[in-house]
Amino acid sequence: MGTKLDDLMSYIKLIANHQRSMKHADGNLWGYELIEKYGMLFPKVMKRFPKGVKKGKLKACYENAYLLARMHPHKYIYVEGCAAGIIPVMHAWCVTPDLKVVDNTWWGQLRGYGDSYFGIPMDIDWVTVTLLKQKTYGILENFKVVEQLKGIEWLHEKWRVQTVR
């Protein structure tokens, strides 16, 4: 049996391979394919709430992370991807500018959650416009939004530079 990180990466690869087999008619990528292509590992997880951060609602990670990043855009970057504690799942969290995970959904809620994080930092203004159009939280699990992703304008500015390699 591998580490939680090994399990997380195997899970992402497995689902991305499955999604590749389904192929979008227009050639766009599915959510897990995007995570595999643009995602990055976030190995530093803050074990305590930073000052001013409160626990969000359980099972509302997209909303919790979005609201934290929207209210404090210079302190926190919104990220969607996969995270693992007990099992790997699609999840949303924030990171600080020095890439430390701030998970205001799982912190203190359930033991063993939030040990491994792999995801895509997103531009909060783009996320806001998209959420207002779709009227629900979360990007990568919404197939209508994923189908419309073109280019890299939706990535957080630091990752746009790294993506054009």
Task: Write structural notes for this entry.
This protein is of the alpha+beta class. A 6-stranded mixed β-sheet has the order 1-6-3-4-5-2, sandwiched between helices. Helix 1 packs across helix 2 (31-38). It has helices at 4-22, 31-38, 61-71, 124-134, 143-148, 157-163; strands spanning 40-41, 44-45, 77-84, 88-95, 100-102, 116-122. The protein contains 6 helices and 6 strands. The model has no long low-confidence stretch (mean pLDDT 81). It has one domain (4-160).
> Which geometry do the CA atoms define?
globular
Average pLDDT, rounded to a whole number, is: 81
Rounded to the nearest angstrom, the distance between the terminal CA atoms is 34 Å
Q: Total domains, how many? A: 1
Strand content: 15-25%
Largest sheet: 6 strands, mixed
Determine Rg (CA atoms, Å). Answer: 15 Å
- Widest sheet: strand ordering: 1-6-3-4-5-2
Query: What share of residues is helical?
Result: 25-40%
Low-confidence stretches: none
Q: Total number of β-strand segments?
A: 6
Structural class: alpha+beta
Note the total helix count. Answer: 6
Order of helices and strands: HHEEHEEEEHHH
